[in-house]
Design goal:
With about 625 residues, the chain is mostly helical. Among the domains are: about 180 residues, Serine Threonine Protein Phosphatase 5, Tetratricopeptide repeat; about 60 residues. It is about 75% helix and about 0% strand. It has 30 helices and no strands. Helix 5 runs antiparallel to helix 6, helix 16 packs antiparallel against helix 17 and helix 24 packs parallel to helix 26. The chain is globular.
Length: about 625
């Protein structure tokens, strides 16, 4: 299911812009026959594209290209390129746009074709060719009045594609043009928006909010600020930072009520509220919020989609609930409501499949824990029969493998399922992840069999073989967690030397995740538990302080940031107790650490303890 954005797609924006420009530029004396031939050729191509007859359209295009060259023909080819773009044939759009640029570089529409060359290359992932087109657009069309406009649209496409460095570069270039006018102002706002979006994607939530405040102060009166707020609110939402997302949408509603984005923002705000409650584990409140959302926005065209994604949030949040029989009850109830209220919509139909999918998943996972192997296999076969031909089947088979992996005695079944996903769905995201998972299972077997010296080389080989940085970071974190948990078991049994080896390996894996894959969703946790391990089991208090401070600096919104702040004080106290730091030096640091808990996290569980320690320290 594609994520539907509030914003108008830059592809459609460009198509509309080009169409308007071209229509307004048609004029001058042209031979009647030539004009008729061109119009007839164009109409034939458009009709075939609208009918979905790509082969027929391509044949008709050949007829157009066979006509004698003229600037009118160039304009016609340019317009036809726009029609191919509407049906998302970016290869053909690129080829036709380049065809026009090569033959009529001085035509008034050439600048738009060069822009399309850049846009299509971005769409197709040809980043080097896209940059070359941007460079050509900058160098060859410096005197064209439309150059700032076209460059801005390229920057916007980079922006929406999360290619932030490229977007920032183009925006800054446009803003510096002396003839940029309104496009220069838009580019300045775009550069500010890119900075915030990049911080959101990197997990620097507090910094993103600070930059948002600066953007509002600098661009509050810009007519397109509401659009930027809508875009950033969605970015926070897709990052599952629902509190920040709701705040952004509420600002939009309050300060820009007359904008075209305000109405949609009201629905988004309500959706973020429900998702935030789910994320906090307040299931009953969340279900009540869903009821209210349906009641308040019953006629809104985006309501079905909003309810659908709330169901997805339930599914993601409850995916780790221990009880397999009740794990998916909440999302199931939301999907059921969606089917009842919006069964005829595409989201209602998707919800039917999701409900069925979760029923199969619940049965398989429950049997995997309590049933016989042949019962699990029969349940998997039933799921395959029910979901045959559905794109979701690859994902479901993959998650069966991940569930097998939860049981060390079923690592063989997990690897077999991952191999199957790779064989049958080789180009899918699940297949790429399954390849990493197989390597991780091999490492986890080394952990279980105490082959600790083999772990680091195995992880290095895994990292060298794959380039999915976020997933590799998650993998290192999971290996570190397994090492840590087994180390705790050896500690409890009094096997302290073995426990220490496991703990040191755990820290090594966690630090690998933090240092090499900071974009991983588990990097903050890896950094935090590195500190916990160093403080609690290894007695390396200075390292623990460094790691706790890293959590506070890089991930200030991490769920255990308050505990990291408090633990810094504990670590300094431990250093003082062993005589590693003089009391006169350590006391101010202890006070600062505990004061930070009271001031920054007044509602956390350690706030009262921190206040008591401050009084004991004479503060």
């Amino acid at each position: 299911m594609a994520k539907k954005m509030i914003l108008v797609s830059p592809v459609l924006v460009c198509a509309a812009v080009i169409t308007a420009l071209v229509l307004s530029g048609v004029g001058g004396a042209r031979a009647e026959a030539t004009a008729a031939e061109l119009e007839q050729a164009k109409a034939k191509i458009v009709s075939l594209l609208e009918a979905g007859d790509m082969a027929g359209a391509d044949a008709a295009l050949d007829e157009l290209l066979a006509l004698a060259d003229s600037e009118q023909k160039g304009r016609a080819v340019h317009e036809v390129a726009g029609e191919y773009k509407k049906v998302e044939d970016f290869d053909k759009t690129l080829w036709l746009s380049q065809y026009v640029v090569d033959r009529w570089p001085g035509a008034d529409y050439a600048v738009w074709c060069e822009m399309e060359v850049a846009l299509c290359n971005i769409e197709l992932g040809n980043n080097t060719a896209a940059q070359s087109a941007v460079d050509k657009l900058s160098a060859d069309y410096a005197s064209d009045a439309n150059q700032p406009w076209t460059l801005y649209l390229v920057g916007q496409r980079y922006d929406y594609g999360r290619m932030y460095d490229e977007a920032r570069g183009v925006y800054e270039q446009v803003a510096a043009l002396p003839t940029a006018g309104q496009w220069g102002q838009k580019a300045q706002l775009g550069a500010a928006r890119v900075e915030i979006a990049s911080l959101i994607d990197s997990g620097s939530w507090s910094l993103a909010v600070q930059e948002l405040d600066l953007m509002l102060a600098d661009f509050a009166d810009r007519p397109d600020i509401a659009q930027s707020l809508a875009w950033l609110g969605e970015r926070f939402g897709w990052a599952r930072r629902y509190g920040e997302a709701k705040d952004v949408f509420d600002i939009l509603i309050r300060d820009y009520p007359d904008s075209s984005f305000a109405q949609a923002a009201q629905l988004w705000s309500a959706r973020m509220n429900a998702c935030g409650l789910i994320n906090q584990g307040k299931d009953e409140d969340a279900l009540a919020a869903v009821d209210k959302l349906i009641e308040d926005f019953g006629s809104d065209a985006g309501l079905a989609e909003a309810v659908y994604w709330i169901g997805k949030e339930y599914e993601w949040k409850r995916g780790t609930v221990e009880d397999r029989t009740t794990r998916y009850e909440a999302p199931d109830s939301v999907y059921e409501r969606l089917i009842q209220e919006f069964g005829e919509t595409s989201f209602g139909q998707d919800a039917e499949w999701d409900k069925k999918r979760l029923e199969h998943r619940t049965q398989i996972f429950t049997l995997m824990k309590d049933g016989e192997p042949n019962e699990v296999e029969a349940a998997i076969a039933a799921m395959e029969a029910d979901l045959a031909g559905r794109a979701e089947l690859a994902s479901e088979l993959y998650w069966v493998g991940r569930e097998y992996e939860e049981y060390p005695d079923k690592y063989g079944e997990a690897k077999a399922m991952f191999h199957r996903v790779i064989t049958e769905y080789g180009e899918s995201i699940e297949a790429r992840q399954a390849r990493v998972d197989i390597g991780r299972i091999d490492v986890q077997n080394m952990v279980l069999t105490q082959k600790l010296d083999s772990i680091t080389p195995a992880l290095e080989s895994l990292e060298a073989a794959f380039d999915d940085k976020e997933y590799l970071g998650d993998t290192l974190t999971r290996v570190g967690t397994q090492l840590y948990e087994l180390g705790e078991q050896f500690e409890l049994r009094g096997e302290y030397d073995v426990a220490e080896r496991y703990m040191r390996k755990a820290v090594e894996a966690w630090r690998g995740s933090v240092e090499r894959y900071p974009e991983s969703s588990l990097a903050a946790g890896a950094c935090y538990f590195s500190a916990v391990c160093c403080r609690r089991y290894l007695g390396e208090y200075e390292k623990a302080i460094s790691y706790y401070e890293e959590v506070l600096e890089r991930w200030p919104d991490y769920e255990y940031a308050w505990h990291a702040q408090y633990s810094i004080g504990d670590c300094y106290e431990a250093l003082m107790d062993v005589g590693a730091i003089a009391e006169s030096e350590v006391l101010p640091r202890m006070r600062a650490a505990y004061r930070g808990v009271v001031e920054k996290y007044p509602d956390c569980r350690k706030a009262k303890g921190a206040a008591l320690r401050l009084r004991e320290l004479g503060y």
